[in-house]
Write a structure and sequence with these properties.
The protein has about 400 residues and is of the alpha+beta class. The chain is built from 7 helices and 14 strands. It has 4 domains: about 30 residues; about 110 residues, Efflux pump adaptor protein, beta barrel domain (Elongation Factor Tu (Ef-tu), domain 3); about 60 residues, OB fold (Dihydrolipoamide Acetyltransferase, E2P) (Beta Barrel); about 130 residues, Orthogonal Bundle (Helix Hairpins), CATH 1.10.287.1700. It starts with a helix and ends in a 5-residue tail after the last strand.
Length: about 400
């Protein structure tokens, strides 16, 4: 009633006299409800006027539902991460300080000369013994021919000495025959002298006969000595010839070594691949003059690639050879690779630097060192040629395999 009195004032009193009790209660209930004022359309960004009644906001329940779902998702993710850490992640030792490496070789010239041809280009795969670079071989062919002729000459010398050695044998036999003949003459001459001397005692021979017999005896003795000396001389000559032959053979061996060296230098004019790989960093062109040791190109064996991971010294306690390693290559993130821990470096990387640290002098600051660990890559992955030396990788060692 108070509300109707406030709205209609003195007119309400006269109206109530004409209305029944039920009609008065119905009017009172209708006037007690808030008035529904339709919202006034506004342009975007327009500020509502003072005293303007705004329409009630809707969608509060949807926002609460979305917020609840977000909280549930966060809680689920946190739970999954916690479970994953407890069951798997805490057993992983990982590092991103890891790179692909290979035992590549720098191909250099063994002999000097002008480059006549280059048979390869950068990034070209080659097989073992394939021709890479050719060096002018004219001088080396001449050296081989000269060394071969010296060997042939020395061979002829050896053959001549061998013939002399063979001829010395009959001469020794001849000297031995002469000695035998001289011995026979000496025996006869001695006997003749004794007969003549006996006849002289009985006055049956003249002194002249005795003197002649004595001379024949002495001459025969001298012939025997001469024959013996001839044998000794022939034997000594044979020994000299044999020594000359041995010396000539030794000289020929030296000349043969020189020939082999000249032939080897000639072979070095063709630079060939030592193993299967890919050519890189080619630094030679036809017409260029190279000295012994000049860098020509690099040969990278992609089929023997491996990973070198530099783990902190605080991580080494859990690592052992043979453990499984998950390798993630930045270049091929969609192709996970599984390797094995193969070996550990004998010292930290700082010890192999050009200027190793000397912590015994000056101020000291403790720095966590890193130790290179070699990780073996499966042969089929290495042969595929996907791993190029220098690529960055992330490795995770599964230490739980040993627990």
């Amino acid at each position: 009633m108070s509300i109707l009195t406030e709205r209609f004032g003195h007119r309400w009193a006269s109206m109530t006299e004409q209305l029944t009790k039920e009609e008065i209660e119905r009017l009172t209930a209708e006037t007690s409800r808030p008035l529904a004022i339709p919202p006034v359309p506004r342009a975007d960004g327009e500020v509502p006027k003072t005293g303007e009644v705004l329409p009630p906001k809707t969608g509060g329940g949807r926002k609460r539902l979305i917020l609840l779902l977000v909280l549930l998702a966060i809680a689920g993710g946190a739970g999954y991460k916690g479970y994953d850490w407890y069951t798997r992640t805490r057993f992983l030792v990982s590092t991103d300080d890891a790179y692909v490496k290979a035992d590549m070789a720098v191909i250099a010239a063994k002999v000097s000369g002008y480059i006549t041809s280059v048979s390869v280009i950068d990034n070209q795969p080659v097989k073992a013994d394939d021709l890479l670079v050719s060096i002018d071989n004219g001088d080396y062919k001449l050296a081989v021919d000269a060394a071969r002729r010296k060997v042939e000459t020395q061979t002829s010398t050896i053959e001549r000495i061998a013939a002399q050695v063979a001829a010395q044998g009959p001469m020794i036999e001849q000297a031995q025959a002469q000695l035998a003949s001289a011995n026979a003459d000496s025996i006869r001459a001695v006997a003749e002298f004794e007969r003549a001397n006996n006849l002289l005692r009985t006055f049956n021979a003249t002194p002249q006969r005795v003197e002649q017999a004595r001379a024949d005896r002495d001459r025969a003795a001298a012939a025997v000595a001469s024959a013996r000396a001839a044998i000794s001389g022939a034997t000594a000559t044979l020994a000299v010839l044999q020594a000359q032959k041995a010396e000539a053979e030794s000289t020929r061996a030296e000349l043969q070594t020189a020939l082999d060296r000249a032939a080897r230098d000639l072979s070095f004019t063709e630079v060939r691949a030592a193993f299967d790989g890919v050519v890189g960093n080619k630094a030679v062109q036809p017409g260029q003059y190279v000295q012994t040791g000049t860098r020509l190109l690099a040969l990278v064996p992609l089929d023997s690639a491996y990973v070198e991971a530099n783990f902190k010294e605080t991580q080494l306690g859990a690592l052992k050879p043979g453990q499984r390693v998950s390798i993630s290559v930045d270049a091929y993130s969609d192709k996970p690779i599984e390797g094995r821990v193969e070996s550990f470096a004998p010292a930290s990387g700082s010890q192999f630097s050009l200027l190793p640290p000397e912590n015994a002098t000056g101020n000291f600051t403790k720095i966590v060192q890193r130790v290179p660990v070699r990780i073996k890559v499966p042969p089929e992955i290495a042969r595929a040629g996907l791993l190029r030396p220098g690529l960055s990788v992330v490795v995770e060692v599964h230490t739980r395999d040993d627990k």
